[in-house]
Amino acid sequence: MLPAVAVGSALAAPHGEEVPAGAALARAARTRRRFRPEAVPAYVYVFGVMLLLIVLAALFAPLVAPHEPFDQSLRNRLDPPVWMDGGSSEYLLGTDRLGQDILSRIIYGARTSLLIGVVALLIGGTIGTTAGLVAGYAGGWLDEAIMTVADIQLAFPFVLLAIAVIAVLGTSLTVLVVVVGLSGWVTYARITRARVLMLKEIGFVEAVRSVGASNWRILLRHILPNTLSALIVLGSLELARLIILEATLSFLGLGVPPRTTPSWGSMIGEGREYLGSNTGWWISVFPGVVLFVTALGVSRIGDWVRDALDPTLRTA
Amino acid sequence: MGRFLLLRLLRTVIVVWGVVTVVFVVARLSGDPISLLVAPETPPAEIQALRDRLGLNDPLPIQYAVFLRQAVQGDFGTSLRYRQDALQVVLDRVPATLQIAAAAFAFAVLVALPVGILSAVRPNSIFDNVAMLLALVGQAVPTFFLGIVLILLFAVRFGWFPTSGLGSPAGLVLPAITLGAFAAASIARLTRSAMLEVLGQDYVRTARAKGLGERSVVRGHALRNALVPVVTIMGLQFGTLLGGSVVTETVFALPGIGRLIIQSIGNRDYPVVQAGVFLIAVAFVVVNLVVDVLYAVLDPRIRLG
Lengths: 316, 305
Description:
The structure holds two protein chains of two kinds.
Chain A: H1 7-12, H2 20-33, H3 42-59, H4 61-64, H5 102-138, H6 140-154, H7 158-169, H8 173-182, H9 185-201, H10 203-210, H11 215-251, H12 264-271, H13 281-309
Helix pairs in contact in A: 3-5, 3-13, 5-6, 5-8, 5-9, 5-11, 6-9, 7-8, 8-11, 9-11, 11-12, 11-13, 12-13
Chain B: H1 2-29, H2 34-37, H3 44-53, H4 60-72, H5 86-91, H6 94-121, H7 126-140, H8 143-157, H9 173-199, H10 202-209, H11 214-252, H12 257-266, H13 270-298, H14 300-304
């Protein structure tokens, strides 16, 4: 049994034969969808290159970073960036109050941000998609129950829930990843459920059921592949939100323990106490700029992917 | 309308029940909640007495029922740090948080509505492009980082506003902008797209065709219709502002509920954390309820549909 991946082409050529008009239209549509580099807006390249640099820096942090992220130098505490009076090329972006190199900590912090962002994305996506598949396919009380839980979660600010959980369980990488991951499952569940309800109305689900496919087989081989493009689009938009959420929790002191894992959010938080004085602004500002650029880049590219893959999802 | 109200009220009750349940489950996640409720150096006999008094030796379902009853009565126990009723400690911080949220809301609406309308009236003008670029940035910049940049520029560099505290009305300006930026960006973008859609409608063309001035077309015919979705978003954004106050209050060291919650985590003052989370969640739910009801009053299609 072949998975019914492309509903459109199945409808256009019901017998697998050439249907002249339909096939030509489908081919035209495919040609139009083909990747054309000159049609990609410039900002996608700009952000793409920046993100690539950040990902590479994270992957090869030990090779790229000029210092170890936890190397302290008492003689070089609160050194300004290289272009200011008192700065040195030893510490390009300056040092914090323990004499740790800001640039190196940003590079290692990229690992934390990206790792937590991606793992949390997978957690939220997996839970949400499964919940949505089950709710939409099973219907009935199971559907009601899952969607009520989703409504409850959406009904109050998630940061509060995260705070309550972390207050009890304490800060650790695992807790943080799970909490950040759970923040996003509702959106996946809703989108998947809506797709499933729609697909159930189209004939092919009935067709594969009539030849004896099991429920799980129908869900995983026939329905899931047809929801994937919407889920990928959603995921690319979610990633920016997750990275910011991790940074926010770390900023509040609820993220990974800053003494063992550098994180952009906790670096920004450490710099907060220097805001009133005229020194030390670089402790917060540089990780903040990198965080902002990363979040903006990911979400802009996500927007572009959405418009390119599925214009019907476009919102205001 | 009565039926709509009843259903909506029922939903609100379910959500509040869900919030309380989550707080209960979370408190039991750590195993023994007693460790969250007493100072580490408390003698064992006292712990045992407290354990009996709090009913922690009862079976879980009974504990849950008791917890529900106490939550309904607003009883979250005694603050370990302030030695008084936990909810009262939180309630004392309400005025500060409300001030910040109200100021942020006023900023968001007063800036975003005119900007959104002007952008829609002159689409693709320089004003429109700059405004929408700023809106995009406003939606992507992390709240706490925006606050820090504003402090560095306008408090430290130019010295126009205090860096922290609520000593004077000027102290509200930077927190309001920080907290309101995301809402402002969202409202501006939505106003623009709602106005653009309405301006393309037949009745707007009719209004122009019968010779009305541009001003009264925009104000009288377009704006009123465009505002319906905008009002909904504004209401929802107000709820979000309450949640966002946690971050803003921490950045500006303001004496509100959000900062109290964060400090209480540091102090392991769990009754206050519970009461604070509960209060903000309930406020959020109630604001959403009010918005929904107002929306139904404004737009008959909702309550009859």
